[in-house]
Amino acid sequence: MAESTGSTDQPGPGPFLTVKEAASLLGVSTRTVYGWIRDGRIPSVRLGPKLLRVPTEQLMELARSQQTP
Fold this sequence. Notes:
Layout: E1 16-17, H1 19-26, H2 30-39, E2 45-48, E3 51-55, H3 56-66
Antiparallel strand pairs: 1-3, 2-3
C-alpha cells in the first residue's frame, strides 16, 4: 500500500466556476452574479439548458480589478 506523503496540494479551481462559487469568491449573492452576467459585466458559458458556468480566469481578473489599492 502506498504511503501518504502528507501533502496538502489540492488542485486549483478548474477552468470554470459555478455561479455559487463565483458569488462566494466575490463576496456577493448569487442573485447579484446572475444580474452581472445578464448585464454583461461577467462572462459566462452555458453548458446545458440549466448549466451556467463562469470562466475562472476572467472572474479572477475582475476580482483583482475591483480590489482597492
